[in-house]
Amino acid sequence: MSRHVVTLIPGDGIGLETSAAMQRVVAASGADIEWELAKAGAACAEECGTPLPFATIEAVKRNKVAIKGPCTTPVGTGFRSVNVALRKTLDLYVCLRPVFSIEGAGGRYNDVDLVIVRENSEDLYAGVEFEEGSQAASDLIAFCKEQDAGAIRSDSGISIKPISITATRNIVRYAFDYAVKHGRKKVTAVHKANIMKYSDGLFLREAREVAKEYEGRVAFDDKIVDAFCMNMVIDPSQFDVVVFPNLYGDIASDLAAGLVGGLGIAPGANIGEEYAVFEAVHGSAPDIAGQDKANPTAEILSAAMMLDHLGELEAARRIREAVRVVYAEGQSLTADIRWATKSDAPAVGCTEFTDALIEAMGKLA
Ligand code: NAD
Predict the structure, then answer these.
(1) How many CB atoms lie within 10 A of CB 203?
(2) Closest CA to 325 of 113, 105, 108, 114
(3) CA 316 to each of CA 23, 178, 217, 276: distance values in angstroms, whole numbers, following the listed order
(4) pTM of the prediction?
(5) How far is the CA of 64 from the centre of ligand 1 (A)?
(6) Ligand 1 midpoint to CA 251 (Å)
(7) pLDDT confidence of residue 75
(8) Which end of the chain, N or C, is less surrounded by CB atoms within 10 Å?
(9) What is the CA(215)–ligand 1 centre distance, in A?
(10) Atom 1 of ligand 1 has which residue's CA nearest to it?
(11) What is the pLDDT of residue 83?
(12) Residues 250, 275, 293, 327: which is the catalytic one?
């Protein structure tokens, strides 16, 4: 087995607890990982004067693979999201989020097995924004009026939604290639092309073009985002690989997580041509941070995705298998899962859950 050096960014809030749990589980899986610690997030901003130090970006570039805990983003003011900055700087244009049922996790369905492929670089996350009352905002409002592009109230703040042919082709092609590689049957593109003709309309048009290259190998259909949400709630098993522009993909990720047991078990990855940063879907959960209440499963399953990426397939399989065993047994589950399963049984903390997982892994064949 070869040794891999991986950058570990614990982040803040529950990230400190879930990252420590993840490290213990990866060590027990048999994979040989050397962790190189790097800082990011709110505490780092106070300590280093920036939430995303240059040294952290350099560390990811050096090792090519990182796993990251959540980073708090102040709402409305302060710094822009560390996550968005990291994705942009490293050109991590794919956000990959597998969503699957785990017996005993309190999901509303037991047959969910889909993959969310979210465009990660543009759309309303591009960060092109104009503050209400600024000169730039009023110039833009005047420009739109001049162009007959529509009236915008003078007291508006404005966020721009760019969707490009380049990024759309890249993400849709990734979704189809993923489907081919993993034996999946269908790709669904989600959009609101009936309303936003030049952004979502372009997304749909380009998705249809790319789909032609895969005709006969992978089926294709599309759904308007509101209909997609309703269909997900009624029967998520109808979806296989689903490709989204950035914002809808973000919202759909939480919706999908909620259908299988919640954010505590939803893993993910940000992937580009050169680098990959693995991270759970959830945020820093300040309401439970530092109390040993967090469910580390999402970060642990993100680590399993990372091990797949590194070619450590057996270690990844052992982690997933142990997760399934602990949930199916139902003895040692965290509070979020007790709540999702409407169970009165006592919850365990992050540490005790991790102990149970490591013990279960030790008993696997
Ligand atoms: P959140 O995901 O942190 O929490 C939402 C709810 O889910 C909370 O009640 C929380 O306790 C619960 N929860 C989340 N993860 C859990 C876990 N592993 N175990 C048990 N319960 C869990 O979302 P939020 O409260 O909207 O955001 C908090 C902060 O995190 C914000 O600053 C936000 O910007 C940031 N955030 C960061 C990332 C990231 O770094 N990738 C992602 C999302 C949000």
Answers:
(1) 29
(2) 105
(3) 13, 18, 28, 16
(4) 0.93
(5) 26
(6) 13
(7) 63
(8) C
(9) 39
(10) 283
(11) 86
(12) 250
CB 16 within 8 A of CB 24: no
Q: For 201-230, what is each residue's pLDDT tens digit? A: 999 999 999 999 999 999 999 999 999 999
Atom of ligand 1 nearest to the CA of 70: 40
> What's the CA gap between 342 and 106, in Å, rounded?
8
- The model's pLDDT over 177-207, given as tens digits with 9 standing for 90+, comes to 999 999 999 999 999 999 999 999 999 999 9
Do residues 321 and 364 lie in contact, with contact meaning Cβ atoms separated by under 8 Å? yes
| Residues near ligand 1 (Cβ within 6 A) | 11, 14, 18, 70-73, 83, 263-264, 279, 282-288, 294-295, 298, 336
- 254 catalytic? Reply is no
How far is residue 123's CA from residue 330's CA, in Å, rounded to a whole number?
A: 41
Q: At residue 173, what are phi and psi to the nearest 5 degrees?
A: -65, -40
pLDDT tens per residue across span 249-296: 999 999 999 999 999 999 999 999 999 999 999 999 999 999 999 999
Instruction: Reduce the secondary structure of the chain to three states and give it as a string.
Output: CCEEEEEEECCCCCHHHHHHHHHHHHHHHCCEEEEEECCCCHHHHHHHCCCCCHHHHHHHHHHCEEEECCCCCCCCCCCCCHHHHHHHHCCCCEEEEEEECCCCCCCCCCCCEEEEEEECCCHHHHCCEECCCCHHHHHHHHHHHHCCCCCCCCCCCEECCCCCHHHHHHHHHHHHHHHHHCCCCEEEEEECCCCCCCCHHHHHHHHHHHHHCCCCCCEEEEEEHHHHHHHHHHCHHHCCEEEECHHHHHHHHHHHHHHHCCHHHCCCEEECCCCEEEECCCCCCCCCCCCCCCCCHHHHHHHHHHHHHCCCHHHHHHHHHHHHHHHHHCCCCCHHHHHHCCCCCCCCCHHHHHHHHHHHHHHCC
Q: How far apart are CA 322 and CA 149, in angstroms?
A: 56
Residue 5 has pLDDT above 80, yes or no: yes
